[in-house]
């Protein structure tokens, strides 16, 4: 196989979440005097991880999706009923990695955009691995997640599931404190709002240009705008607006393609793993 000279970027499907559209775009289908009893709308959105093959850093995985047993009793009733997960065995993280000839032990870097249960639930796959020994997460996000589950003394609180990230053998966190350059062509972006310390990823590719993965800094294109429209689930509305505008500036600066965290229409247009962008 020829030497890799620039990154390759893979988009991985972890299955589909079903939920009320108003969770993703606040006040969607809002009632009016003419239509006071508008019904909620239910839709299905993708759960996405990204995988980067880098010439010097090796294999980088961003987000792990949900726990393999999420809908088999692992998740509490509230997320199982409010945002049920629909997937096949092909959507499980191990199967997705195997499509490109990998297993969790082959991953060199693991980055969690945030610690919500649909992004960090597969962390246990990396117990006692090299990637698990230095899981990259923003310091603010780690503090907030621990606060939520320990101060409230609940297993599940505000989309954090304690057992997803606490008490796993060989899992150690390596917190970062703002925008962080992993290499000349990969930058982690601090994009708070959806959660306290959410991270996005900007990747410069030789042939396909620049991609910015916002994760849940914007669920769908309607959040990003312009104008920015807040989601129904948000930690800090002011920070959410600012993070979208930060990405918009980077989009213009690098002529970047912005990828949203859960947009079904956009995801359908992307090459999906094992296909890649380079």
What features would you highlight for this structure?
single chain, 278 residues, alpha+beta, Metallo-beta-lactamase, Chain A, five-stranded mixed beta sheet
Number of domains: 1
Q: Could you describe the largest sheet, including whether it forms a barrel?
A: 5 strands, mixed
Question: So what's the overall shape?
Answer: globular
SSE string, helices as H and strands as E = EHEEHHEHEHEHEEHEEEEEHHEH
Distance between the termini: 15 Å
Number of helices: 10
Give me the side-by-side strand order of the main sheet. 4-1-2-3-5
Helix content: 25-40%
Q: Can you tell me the CATH architecture?
A: 4-Layer Sandwich
So, the CATH homologous superfamily?
Ribonuclease Z/Hydroxyacylglutathione hydrolase-like
How many beta-strand runs? 14
Per DSSP, what share of the residues sits in E-state strands of 2 or more residues?
Answer: 25-35%
- What low-confidence regions span 5 or more consecutive residues with pLDDT below 50? none
Average pLDDT: 95
Which CATH first-tier class would you pick?
Alpha Beta
The CATH topology label is Metallo-beta-lactamase, Chain A
Question: Helices and strands: which structural class?
Answer: alpha+beta
What is the C-alpha radius of gyration, as a whole number of Å?
18 Å
Explain this structure:
- The chain is α+β, with helices and mostly antiparallel strands.
- The protein has one domain: Ribonuclease Z/Hydroxyacylglutathione hydrolase-like (Metallo-beta-lactamase, Chain A, 4-Layer Sandwich).
- The chain is globular, with a radius of gyration of 18 Å.
- The protein has ten helices and 14 strands.
- The longest helix is centred in the C-terminal third of the chain and has 18 residues, at 237-254.
- It has a five-stranded mixed β-sheet. The protein has a five-stranded mixed β-sheet with strand order 10-11-12-13-14, with helices on one face.
């Amino acid at each position: 196989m020829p030497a890799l000279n620039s990154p390759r970027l893979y988009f991985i499907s972890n299955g589909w979440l079903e939920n009320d559209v108003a969770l993703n775009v606040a006040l969607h289908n809002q009632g009016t005097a003419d239509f006071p009893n508008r019904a909620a709308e239910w839709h299905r959105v993708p759960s996405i991880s990204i995988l980067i093959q880098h010439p010097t850093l090796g294999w980088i995985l961003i987000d792990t999706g949900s726990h393999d047993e999420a809908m088999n009793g692992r998740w509490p009733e509230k997320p199982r009923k409010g945002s049920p997960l629909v997937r096949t065995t092909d959507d499980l993280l191990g199967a997705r990695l195997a499509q490109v000839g990998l297993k969790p032990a082959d991953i060199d870097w693991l980055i969690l955009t945030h610690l919500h249960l649909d992004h960090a639930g597969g962390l246990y796959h990396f117990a006692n691995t090299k990637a698990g020994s230095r899981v990259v997460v923003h310091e603010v996000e780690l503090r907030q997640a621990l606060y939520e589950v320990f101060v409230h003394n609940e297993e599940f609180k505000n989309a954090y599931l304690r057992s997803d990230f606490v008490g796993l053998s060989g899992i150690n966190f390596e917190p970062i404190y703002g925008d962080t350059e992993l290499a000349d062509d990969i930058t982690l972006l601090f994009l708070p709002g959806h959660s306290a310390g959410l991270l996005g990823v900007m990747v410069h590719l030789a042939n396909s240009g620049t991609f910015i993965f916002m994760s849940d800094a914007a669920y769908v294109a309607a959040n990003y705008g312009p104008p920015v429209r807040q989601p129904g689930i948000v930690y800090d509305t002011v920070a959410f607006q600012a993070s979208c505008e930060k990405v918009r500036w980077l989009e213009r600066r690098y002529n970047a393609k912005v990828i949203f965290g859960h947009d079904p229409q956009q995801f359908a247009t992307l090459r999906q793993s094992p296909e890649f962008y380079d």
